[in-house]
């Protein structure tokens, strides 16, 4: 059998709410067994020390805390549906989600893949309680119960397309599910598999059965292989593992807990009783697993035994293992069983054992077996080549193999062999040729960006605090933590991103954001739709000595592309632009250096952004800024652009001095007459309705300035060396045109809003004619920017050494430009890698999904396990009253005090209060006008009824599918309830409603057009 990697784990067991707590409990030999919670059944009424008919001999067992808690809003499940669902489905949904996150993958990224789901489950007591009152059976109860739905529910909510099945082989169910998952992976039915097990004890029925069969321990505790072993103690819990073929896990850089080397499943067949264990079948299933794994018994260091703690069961299991291990002279195999800690978890027993073995191999230590101090001498363990773990077993360095047995009450047996993960799979090394993370060039922003997403601000705040606590305890460098968060903590509507230099700063920043509403609002966003990014390339005048020098030194990514531009420019400049920038040379103010330097900076910034996955939808360059934009748009290659821009700057610098530029606070129409009187003056730029720049001879500009001041018009001289975009540029045009003809230029492959034409270029080449005209023609920035805003960008990203164009764009915004975000990767002269990281963070918050691998150097792209998603526990769904004792003959009929049936109910509580405290509206509440309108009121009441919401939890803004969890069955019921409430409404069909069901408001508007009646 080819190896299968365990890459993700999550679980909840008695006394252990998560995998970390589970391991801690095992290492301290903790006990999760306690009294039967009052929430389940009245244990005293079902208890008899002698175990007489209809009673159990114990009032204790292993129970998980808060099994009624379910974050239905996270999964967009309506309260009504959540209340009808078997709590095992709810627990599995949350556990599977967290296990996938633990594997380093955002669960949404599995959507549409062939990921398989394999669930082991033994009981379905929720259905026994709720499906026998036929008058109260609903569609939600139907889909909320059934073994198949435990697996299908996970596949549905995660949109997984691979095999999806539940298996019931009694106590071996979840290990058999793992066996099936491994086989599906090796048969290439799926590339990822979620294998899980679940058990929730809702009634005393199975405990009564164990008692009547002579299998139940009076104190409710399993005591595996102990002299005090006296039967089974019930336990419950949920666990899930994410499995990959080992080669795939390594290729994707996933951390591996342990490797499954081989599994086997068989059956007892006809033995001395259908519930009695069969030694020969047990030893054969173990031997079969060894053969499949290619392992000799002497190589197995320890085995997590089935270990129920029954006298007969322990004896048969020891003899079965002894058949294979009795010849181990001096090196007995260690055995133990987690059932001593949590009880017999039935359908979840196998996954509990698997997780224990995987964590033992991962931590290189096997916990002691609880109740091992008084070993049962009748087992003669030493003779069988076995020893009971009375203290933790430290595992040797290097490969170690552990076994795991799980035997079903009906005779279906399973065994698995696990091995410690290869060293390079425990902590994958960045740049490993097998890891899939190698680069052809340098990467890294210089500062990591920690990301987190959640479906609501409340959920975001809760998870920020959880992550802050976890980060504070980490000693890992912040880069790998940030990179791991980018991979696993994404996909929800509310997006949070925070640059951080170290873990201390990160933890403090997370806490600060969680505590400050204003800061949280600044650091998070909920994008309304797909982002459309416009890159704006700044023009001449924005330069300064040492521009982007700090960014160059800190960001390998930016450094790579500035070096590339410098290499292209050097043959034509006669020197290095890069060296002038790094040295702070004032020569960057000389036109011959200014234009190549600006081009290099803007090309490097734009190339860095595109390398990071920021795909521009729109481009605009102000004057000389159009050269870098043209390279990005594929007009000509970098080398040709470098040659042309260098010639442009050099030819301009050769022109005589004496020209200047004048910014005027007035529209062009008021200046045309003055310009026409001065042949050596032209319009240099029109940046907006009240922002015109004149360019030309200094003396002529002075005459115009005097006239304008006399009229009370504000003017400002610009610090320039020449009169750009004016008639004074004419002497250089022929020489430039000759070079431009040689270089040429094509049609942009991206939308370019030309500041030469003042509009979008429509399949027009940016050729020699274009670039020659570009020199002396006015810059029509105002017109071009207005057209660009009308195209609906979500972000304006200024690609230049300082934000100039975004500021000018603010004066041009009309209704079309409202809500546009501005981003500056280089916000000021002190900008560094952190400023660039903040720009990327802002884009992520706005809906852009960067290629995060490029944001980090290779050595930081190492997977780290982050704390999985923290679900809300304020929503409670359970039976209205606990089960009460009835006559044995009527055991299937369960009553409560109110309605002679046990019904599911939904309850919400505040985070700070106990059960029963009702939380206020989850969604925006209905407004007064809405409530007064009879159609709106009828729709809201119907929606609330069908979904199980309070009316004030539904508003016109509520989305029926995304917010309220409606499906086709609920839509049919909604139609009928609306029809009942609106007497004047003509008959409508589901087909009529479907196109109008985006939001409650859309539905109200549609129905208002169909009726003017009052509520029936």
From TrEMBL:
Basic and acidic residues bias: start-end ranges: 43-55, 426-437
UniProtKB keywords: Acyltransferase, Antibiotic biosynthesis, Phosphopantetheine, Phosphoprotein, Transferase
Family matches, as Pfam families: Acyl_transf_1, ketoacyl-synt, Ketoacyl-synt_C, PP-binding
GO molecular function: 3-oxoacyl-[acyl-carrier-protein] synthase activity; fatty acid synthase activity; phosphopantetheine binding
InterPro entries associated with the record: Ac_transferase_dom_sf, ACP-like_sf, Acyl_transferase_dom, Acyl_Trfase/lysoPLipase, Ketoacyl_synth_AS, Ketoacyl_synth_C, Ketoacyl_synth_N, Malonyl_transacylase_ACP-bd
Ranges where the Carrier domain occurs: 930-1011
Membrane spanning residue stretches: none
Presence of keyword Ribosomal protein: no
Positions of the Ketosynthase family 3 (KS3) domain: 1-420
GO biological process terms held by the UniProt record: fatty acid biosynthetic process; macrolide biosynthetic process
Residue ranges of the region described as Disordered: 43-63, 424-443
Coiled coil regions in record: none
Domain of life of the organism encoding this protein: Bacteria
Protein name from the UniProt record: Acyltransferase domain-containing protein
Organism of derivation: Streptomyces acidicola
């Amino acid at each position: 059998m080819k190896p299968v990697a365990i890459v993700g784990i999550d679980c909840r067991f008695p006394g252990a709410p998560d995998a970390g707590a589970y391991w801690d409990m095992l290492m301290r030999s903790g006990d999760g067994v306690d009294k039967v919670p009052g929430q389940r059944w009245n244990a005293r009424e079902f208890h008899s020390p002698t175990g007489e008919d209809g009673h159990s001999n114990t009032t204790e067992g292993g129970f998980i805390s808060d099994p009624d808690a379910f974050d239905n809003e996270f999964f967009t499940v309506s309260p009504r549906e959540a209340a009808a669902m078997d709590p095992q489905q709810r627990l599995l949904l949350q556990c599977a989600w967290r296990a996938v996150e633990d594997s380093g993958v955002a669960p949404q990224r599995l959507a549409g893949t062939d990921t398989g789901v394999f669930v082991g489950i033994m009981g379905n007591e929720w259905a026994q309680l709720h499906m026998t009152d036929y008058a109260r059976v609903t569609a939600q109860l139907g889909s909320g119960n059934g073994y198949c739905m435990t697996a299908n529910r996970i596949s549905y909510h995660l949109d997984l397309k691979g095999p999806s099945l539940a298996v019931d082989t009694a106590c071996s169910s979840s290990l058999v599910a793992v066996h099936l998952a491994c086989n599906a992976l090796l048969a290439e039915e799926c590339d990822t598999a979620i294998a899980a097990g679940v058990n929730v004890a809702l009634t005393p029925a199975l405990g009564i059965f164990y008692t009547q069969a002579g299998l139940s321990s009076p104190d409710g505790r399993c005591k595996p292989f102990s002299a005090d072993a006296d039967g089974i103690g019930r336990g419950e819990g949920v666990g899930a593992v994410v499995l990959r073929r080992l080669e795939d896990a390594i290729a994707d850089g996933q951390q591996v807990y342990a490797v499954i080397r081989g599994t086997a499943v068989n059956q007892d067949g006809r033995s001395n009783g259908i519930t009695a264990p069969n030694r020969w079948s047990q030893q054969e299933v173990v031997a079969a697993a060894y053969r499949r794994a290619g392992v000799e018994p002497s190589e197995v260091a320890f085995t997590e035994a089935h270990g129920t703690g029954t006298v007969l069961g322990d004896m048969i299991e020891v003899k079965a293992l002894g058949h294979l291990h009795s010849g181990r002279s001096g090196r007995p195999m260690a055995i133990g069983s987690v059932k001593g800690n949590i009880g017999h978890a039935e359908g979840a027993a196998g996954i509990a054992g698997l997780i224990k073995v995987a964590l033992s191999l991962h931590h290189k230590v096997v916990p002691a077996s609880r109740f091992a101090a008084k070993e049962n001498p009748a087992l003669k363990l030493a003779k069988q080549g076995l020893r009971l773990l009375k203290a933790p077993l430290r595992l040797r360095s290097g490969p170690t193999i552990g076994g795991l047995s799980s035997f079903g009450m009906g005779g279906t047996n399973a065994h698995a062999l696990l091995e410690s993960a290869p060293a390079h799979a425990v902590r994958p090394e960045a740049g490993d040729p097998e890891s899939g993370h190698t680069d052809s060039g340098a990467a890294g922003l210089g500062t990591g960006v920690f990301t987190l997403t959640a479906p609501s601000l409340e959920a975001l705040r809760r998870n920020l605090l959880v992550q802050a606590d976890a980060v504070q305890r980490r000693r890992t460098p912040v880069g790998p933590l940030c990179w791991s968060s980018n991979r696993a903590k994404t996909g929800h509507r509310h997006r949070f991103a925070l640059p951080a230099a170290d873990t201390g700063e990160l933890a403090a920043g997370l806490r600060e954001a969680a505590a400050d509403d204003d800061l949280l609002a600044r650091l998070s966003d909920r994008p309304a739709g797909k982002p459309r990014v416009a890159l704006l390339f700044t023009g001449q005048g924005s330069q300064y000595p040492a521009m982007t020098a700090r960014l160059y030194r800190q960001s390998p990514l930016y450094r790579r592309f500035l070096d590339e531009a410098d290499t292209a420019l050097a043959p034509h400049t006669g020197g290095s632009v890069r060296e002038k920038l790094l040295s702070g040379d004032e020569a960057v103010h000389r036109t011959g250096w200014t234009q190549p330097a600006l081009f290099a900076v803007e090309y490097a910034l734009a190339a860095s952004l595109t390398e990071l996955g920021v795909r521009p939808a729109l481009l605009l360059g102000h004057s000389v800024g159009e050269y870098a934009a043209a390279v990005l748009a594929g007009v000509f290659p970098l080398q040709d652009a470098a040659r042309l821009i260098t010639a442009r700057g050099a030819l301009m610098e050769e022109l005589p001095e004496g020209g200047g530029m004048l910014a005027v606070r007035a529209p062009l129409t008021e200046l045309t007459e003055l310009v026409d009187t001065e042949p050596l003056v032209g319009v240099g730029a029109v940046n907006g309705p009240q922002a015109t720049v004149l360019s030309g001879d200094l003396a002529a500009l002075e005459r115009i300035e005097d006239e304008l001041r006399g009229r009370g018009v504000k003017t400002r001289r610009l610090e320039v060396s020449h009169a750009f975009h004016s008639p004074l540029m004419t002497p250089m045009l022929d020489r430039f045109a000759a070079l431009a003809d040689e270089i040429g230029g094509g049609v942009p492959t991206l939308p370019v809003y030309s500041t030469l034409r003042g509009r979008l270029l429509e399949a027009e080449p940016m050729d020699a004619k274009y670039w020659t005209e570009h020199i002396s023609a006015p810059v029509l920035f105002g017109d071009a920017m207005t057209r660009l805003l009308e195209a609906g960008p979500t972000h304006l990203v200024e690609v230049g050494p300082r934000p100039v164009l975004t500021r000018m764009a603010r004066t041009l915004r009309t209704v079309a430009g409202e809500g546009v975000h501005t981003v500056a990767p280089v916000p000021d002269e002190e900008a560094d890698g952190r400023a660039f990281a903040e720009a990327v963070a802002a884009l992520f918050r706005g809906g852009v999904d960067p290629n995060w691998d490029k944001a980090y150097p290779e050595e930081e792209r190492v997977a780290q396990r982050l704390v999985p998603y923290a679900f809300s526990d304020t929503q409670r769904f359970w039976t209205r009253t606990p089960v009460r004792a009835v006559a044995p003959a009527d055991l299937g009929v369960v009553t409560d005090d109110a309605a002679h049936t046990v019904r599911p109910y939904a309850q919400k509580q505040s985070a700070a209060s106990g059960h029963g405290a009702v939380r206020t509206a989850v969604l925006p509440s209905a407004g007064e006008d809405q409530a007064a309108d009879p159609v709106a009121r009828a729709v809201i009441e119907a929606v609330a009824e069908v979904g199980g919401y309070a009316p004030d939890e539904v508003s016109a803004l509520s989305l029926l599918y995304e917010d309220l969890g409606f499906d086709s069955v609920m839509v049919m019921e909604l139609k009928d309830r609306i029809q009942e409430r609106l007497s004047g409404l003509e008959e409508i069909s589901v087909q009529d409603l479907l196109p109008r069901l985006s939001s409650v408001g859309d539905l109200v508007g549609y129905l208002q057009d169909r009726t003017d009646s009052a509520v029936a």
